[in-house]
Amino acid sequence: MSDAVPPPGRRPGPRLFTRGTWLERSRTAEVLRAETTGGLLLIAAAAVALVWANSPWSETYYDLRDYAVGPEALHLHLTLGTWAADGLLAIFFFVAGLELKREFVAGDLRDPRRAALPVVAAVGGMATPAVVYVLWNLGADGSLDGWAIPTATDIAFAVAILAVISTHLPVGLRTFLLTLAVVDDLLAITIIALFYTEELHLDYLGLAVLPIGLFAVLVQRRIRSGWLLVPIALVAWTLVHSSGVHATVAGVVLAFTVPVRRIDGRDGPGLAEHLEHLTRPISAGVAVPIFAFFAAGVTVGGLDGLRSALTDPIALGIICGLVVGKPVGIAGATWLLATFTRAELDDELSWIDVIGMSMLAGVGFTVSLLIGELAFGTGSAADDHVKVGVLLGSLTAVLLATVVLRSRNRTYRRVAEIEERDDDGDGVPDVHQHDDETD
């Protein structure tokens, strides 16, 4: 990109994919390390489920997944697979909600100009795969129920792949991927609440307001005792689940009540960051891998079974949505933002970098499998084809992204070496000091 001075009277536009502040960069690195570990566990859990479901002992896998436990009251006699999808994923969405609120209240994205890029890209990255899926399934009876399946990006899976291929991505792109996935999660849970709620019980939903309100009062007073907050959160989750709204919505709603800033107004981690720090290891290390174990198991049935799945427009729509729709939607939305505003791509990047990251965003897993279960029912033939489509689509997206990003690896490494220079020895990279002086 050129460093030309803008014409007189014209303000320079914002830079896309800038590196952000030093504090934000440090925090992003910490989050990415946690997500990388969780993503590797997720991949391992999914691999175990696939091997088990296609082994001579496959019936024991399905017996375990469909084993029901819990009280009959409040519709809580659920299978282990449903407990993982409705209960454990609520923890995942609680962390996503905390992350999203922190980013927009106290993070770099509190600046509307910075926030515009991941929001616009997330919308484009969800709308385009949905359109691709619908085009594949026009005229197919009942298949359109799965239109939202290829819209989700699995941040843990994507970051784990990023770590495996050892790419020295510029920090701006890493932050973009993380924020894009968080916004993506919010849009996905909104879709689940609006379009996949079959039966709504307003009495339970009204009662859920009470524990949610009590939780909000306590956290606004900066009360952080787990002995108080966890039982109240469980009651809220139970009532939301009984209302017919998917129970993971409770996790996001509770997260949005948590204050981000400190009560004394000083700099430093607030309650949202404190709860996120406590909960993220449980989400990444326990909740998501267990869900992946129960959701990813599908008996392919050899070449005949794979051929059957790949002739189903449901699986084909998912694969094309993830592999084609995601990169076209994300990169296309970013290009439109740069074309019709004064925004410009950061000097150290090229559009091939954006395309590579957009391909990596085609890794859909956790939320995609969840929506597939909600759309077609756990254990149905269509749901099995959903799993094949999600797995093959995600694998294809990973391979394509790896080719593109690895081809840029040498350039990324040179950029990273420049960014890490600290000639004055004060512990803060010189490039960030230069940015602060320029600002």
Automatic annotation (TrEMBL):
Instruction: Print the keywords alphabetically.
Output: Antiport, Cell membrane, Ion transport, Membrane, Sodium, Sodium transport, Transmembrane, Transmembrane helix, Transport
Could you list the residue ranges that cross the membrane?
Answer: 31-53, 73-95, 115-136, 148-169, 176-196, 202-219, 226-258, 278-303, 315-338, 350-376, 388-405
Under what name is this protein listed?
Na(+)/H(+) antiporter NhaA
Where is the stretch described as Disordered? Answer: 418-439
List the gene name. Answer: nhaA
Q: Does the keyword Transmembrane helix apply?
A: yes
Q: What does this protein do?
A: Na(+)/H(+) antiporter that extrudes sodium in exchange for external protons.
Source organism per entry reads Nocardioides endophyticus
Concerning its family, UniProt says: Belongs to the NhaA Na(+)/H(+) (TC 2.A.33) antiporter family.
Stretches of Basic and acidic residues bias are at 429-439
Mode of membrane association: Multi-pass membrane protein
Q: Name one Pfam family in it.
A: Na_H_antiport_1
Catalysed reaction equations from the record: Na(+)(in) + 2 H(+)(out) = Na(+)(out) + 2 H(+)(in)
> Cellular location of this protein?
Cell inner membrane; Cell membrane
